[in-house]
Please model this.
Amino acid sequence: MDRHIESHRLPEPNYEGGYPTVETARDAFYEYDFQAAVQFYVWGYAYLSGLAFEKGCAKLGGDERSLVIFDKLVQPQHEVRTANDGVIYAGSRIMDLSEGPWVVEAPARCRGHIYDISMRAYEDIGDVGPDGGQGGKFLIVPRDHDGDIPDGYFPVRALYSDLLYFLLRTFPASEGGVEAAAELAQDARYYPLAEADAPREQAYLLIGDRPFSQNWPRDARAFDWLAEVVERDRLPAEAHPYLGNMRRLGLVPGEGFHPDERARGILDRAAETAEAIVLSMAFRNRASEPVYENRQWELFLRNKDPRFLPENYEEIEARAGGWHFLIANFAHRVPARPGTGQFPLCSFRDANGDPLNGSNLYRFTMPADVPVGQFWQFPVYSTRTRSFVQTDQRRATITSTDEELITNDDGSVDLYIGPEAPEGFEPNWIKTNPDEGWFTLLRLYAPLEPILNKEWVPNDIERVR
Model:
């Protein structure tokens, strides 16, 4: 028998006249509750990701209406999942639609997304959104809103949650520097529609160089976080079966979370099992397909639907695995027009299919003349934090605009990733930590037709030694 099936078998059931014995019923209910907790943890994993950003911001001050701005480029001390250190980030705290619709004012020349606490995406902002990069006002209404939409707004209906965010990026490369991009980000606003005639002055929370963490508990404490979401949000119908099963473990909507000693023991074991499941979904996803034949590159977003509900099922594996390491969801994964948005690819393995490990030296050769309207970027993230790898080099990204980048005679560029730099290639090197796994998210900004139709094919990451 398969060892996995054998290791998870219940004790041999016993029956008396067709009735399960007391011992068999006890074991069966323990297993049922254990499986229910595991499934709820996996289903709700993206909620942990969403709530973590709110809690990380709350620790740094401001108030619930502060616009959070990374007014300096994201650095390794910022544990922001798969962040980009070539842009300025700005985002909201939670917008609670139970209080009514909210307005988001986005400036021109930014790019962003509107999504809920469970990472279901509703609309994009910027050149890939309805404003076409010109900026404008977006009106976010709850699922049951039956009023008119005032003129002058891009309407967004939140279908599965009352707790929403928006995230914007502004670009130092096009604004003339980091300071100018941070100033542009401060032109964003958000406020309740009820205040539209005279919104209060926008408050800001500037992150700068301050340490910031977007991480969350990855043990039984995660259930306390999920219980907080259950109390704060109006969960969709898809959650009802999970919530029904969790009642036996002390989680009752409207009544709080009160697990007894038996439940806590089950939750401890369930969290350990569920975490192993989510990590497998993230880094060894069984549904992932290579983007190119004979290459290790995978799609950045694995879900088919931005709300994880294509046709007649829910994309639980794609949501849990993706939002273990992603920061925000896109309403439109692939740009509709060449020269807009970005085309990101991720890789967890080298050309031989082996997991990327910080103990080894790797080479990635970027071909010459990459067909992008802006630039390309190669970041390195830790599998432990899903944020920039932290070393004494204090560098985690190489970009095509780096002035000291060494270029080969044919215009290609050799990038090196490993614990030590090859002699003479220090400008093209990112340091890694021995025995720490890493992965990359190759970003291609303003991709042109050869990228979008997959005629252009990137090389794999090769192990040198």
Q: What stands out?
A: Confidence is low (pLDDT under 50) at residues 1-7.
